[in-house]
C-alpha cells in the first residue's frame, strides 16, 4: 500500500514499499490533497501490476500518457515505470513545424524563430532543461541584435505558441516563455505618407509596363503586393461596371471602384497583354516570383529601390506597405473609413492603427479653418 504524506508548505509525497521490500518515495511538490490521493491510487495500481507481472489498468495507462515529463521521471526513478525518452529542442521544433497547418508563408515566418531558438539553445538541448531565466536570456539576445520591437514581439509570440504545444503534449509542466511578453513597437514609427506626385514621377522611371502596373495597383488601388496584383485576373477587371474584384489570398474576395488612374493603367496593360492572357501580371513574371511559399523571391523591393534612386527620390521605410497605406489615407480623406477599409480588405480598427496617417496637408487645412466657430 502507498500513503500520502504532507510536508510543511503544502508539499506532498507518496511513500510505498516496493516488491524488493525497500521503502521508496515519490515527491509531488505543492499540490492539493485530492490530487495527491489520485496519484497515490495510480501508484498502487502500478505496484499491483508490477507484482503480478501484468500491464497496469487501462485508466492508469491513460493517466501515464497524460502526465508531464517531471512526474514521469520521478515514477521511473522509483522503479514504477520505464524511463520515457526525453525530447530535444531540435526534435520537438522539427515536428512542430512539420505538423503546422498554416500557409507556407506563415510557416516560413515561424521558421525564423525556430532558427533563432536552435541557434541560441542548440538542437540537442533537452526541452525540459530550458528555464524561464534562459528564456529571458533568449529574449535579450534578440534585443542585442538590434531587431525592431515589433519583430522581437512577434518571434517571442511564436516561441510561446511552440512551448504551449509542448505543454499540451505533456512534454513540459510549465512553459519557460509564459511570462515573457515584450511590447511591440508603435505602428506609426515606420509609417510614411507617399504623395501622389512622387509616385507619378516614379512611373516615368519604371523599366517595363509591368512595373508601372504594379506601382499603380499598390498606390492607387491599395493592393497588397505581391500577392494581390499577382493573383489579379483580367476577368476581375470589370471595365464596363467600373469595378475591380480582388481575390485576396489573405482575406478573400472583395470589390472596389476602378479609379481613373487604375482604369487607364489597366487599359494600357490589356492592350499590351498577349492574346489569351489570364492574369494581369504576365505569366513569365509570375513564374519567376512563385515558389513553395507563394509569391516570394520576386525581387520587388530591390527593383523598386532602383526606380526610386533613378528618379532622384529618397527611399522610405516599408516600401510596398506604405504605398498601400497612402492609398487608404487618401480614401479616408474622401469617404467614410468603413467604406475605404472594406475596399482595401481590412477593418476600420486595423486601418486606423496600421494604415491611415495624418499628412502635412491635413495640418495646413486644419490650421486655416475654425472648427469652433
Structural notes for this entry:
The structure is a single chain. With 373 residues, the protein is mainly α. The chain is 52% helix and 10% strand. It contains 17 helices and eight strands. The protein has helices spanning 33-52, 58-66, 69-77, 89-98, 104-121, 132-144, 149-168, 196-203, 209-219, 227-231, 260-272, 283-289, 300-310, 319-334, 337-344, 348-355, 360-368; strands spanning 2-6, 11-17, 23-30, 237-238, 243-248, 252-257, 290-291, 294-295. The strands form three sheets. It has a three-stranded antiparallel sheet with strand order 1-2-3. Strands 4-5-6 form a three-stranded antiparallel sheet. The longest helix has 20 residues, at 33-52. The termini are far apart. The mean pLDDT is 88.
**What structural class results from the helix and strand content?**
mainly alpha
The oligomerization state is single chain
Which percent band covers the strand fraction? Answer: 5-15%
User: N- to C-terminal separation?
Assistant: 88 Å
Q: What is the helix content?
A: 40-55%
Number of helices: 17
Taking pLDDT < 50 over at least 5 consecutive residues as the criterion, the unreliable ranges are none
Structural Rg: 30 Å
- Mean pLDDT, as a whole number? 88
How would a crystallographer describe the biggest sheet? 3 strands, antiparallel
Order of helices and strands: EEEHHHHHHHHHHEEEHHEEHHHHH
Secondary structure: number of strands: 8
Q: Rough shape?
A: elongated
- Strand order in the largest sheet: 1-2-3
